Amino acid sequence: MHAKKKIKPYEIISCKKGHSVGVRKSLCFYNPAEVYDSILNNEDVTKWLNFISNHYLPPPNKRVLLIYPCSSEKPYFESRSYKTLYKTLNALGEKRKDVHLMTISEPFGLVPEEFYGKKTKWHDWKDGWYDCPGLFEWWCNKHGQAYSKEHVDKSIELLAMHVADFLKKVKSKKSYAKIIAFVRTYTSKLKSKHDHTHKRIIRKAAEIANIDVAILPDRAIVSEIVENKGRMAWDMYGVSHPMAQEYLLKYLEGVLKEKWYTKLKRLFYGLLS
């Protein structure tokens, strides 16, 4: 038998992920050990994580933080999933300005929307894009990469601590009245998976920071999508599925509706006893 040809993920996969932008080979991480090492030692990654943890403050007058998954297509804001999200957010009208969008990413943690497409001293979000499928068991198995559950857990623990540092800051400064994470929460069989890294990072970070984060969509919404559109609809589209986006819009409208939102703002500024 012939030896199996060694797969070269960058040449056949990663370099094709950038739409009008480049994906750096030095920022491609294909298995859990590589992801873990990048969080600890990759200069581009650590510089950004430390910036968000220790120095970054969100823009003023944002009342809702929406945390949304990164996309495999780069840059995020030109991907199909983000174009779908922008339609949802734009449907809020003038209240769109009250929502602060952040991407949750491995290995970069949180990426605020005001940095999309920008070159900064902390990271180049114009040309410094990455590819990081290395925490997913199915991907490692498909592409001949060593999968280590231990390194997945360690990576999630480290990223959760960085996200928690940011959440502690916004909690102390009362930056938001509501924090929402709209990520993949369940499989189409309505099970939680080890591979649901965004959900795990945010849940752990919220526990560390002792802050409430609404992690959505809930099980009932995923079940409704699967029952009405089939398992493949959720498996393929996840939170960008039209039914999920309709739910997100209604949820945001409920958070921002005038009567409750006015009360939230008054509570936020400490005007109620």
Q: What's the N-to-C terminus distance?
A: 77 Å
Global mean pLDDT: 91
Q: In CATH, what is the class?
A: Alpha Beta
Structural class: alpha/beta
What is the ordering of alpha helices and beta strands? HEHHEHEEEHHEHEHHHH
How many E-type strands?
7
The fraction of residues in strands falls at 5-15%
Q: What is the fourth-level CATH superfamily? A: Uracil-DNA glycosylase-like
User: What name does CATH use for the topology?
Assistant: Rossmann fold
Give the proportion of residues in helices. Answer: 40-55%
Name the CATH architecture. 3-Layer(aba) Sandwich
Low-confidence parts, pLDDT < 50 over ≥5 residues?
Answer: 1-5
Report the total helices: 11
* Largest beta-sheet details: 5 strands, mixed
Structural overview:
It is globular and about 50 Å long. The longest helix is centred in the middle third of the chain and has 25 residues, at 149-173. Strand 2 (64-69), helix 4 and strand 3 (99-105) form a beta-alpha-beta unit. The strands form two sheets. The chain has a five-stranded mixed β-sheet with strand order 4-3-2-6-7, sandwiched between helices. Strands 1-5 form a two-stranded parallel ribbon. The model is unreliable at 1-5 (pLDDT under 50). The protein has helices at 9-12, 32-41, 43-54, 80-90, 137-142, 149-173, 197-209, 219-229, 231-237, 242-256, 258-268, and strands spanning 23-28, 64-69, 99-105, 109-112, 129-131, 178-182, 214-216. The chain is of the alpha/beta class and 273 residues long. The protein has one domain (9-268): Rossmann fold (3-Layer(aba) Sandwich).
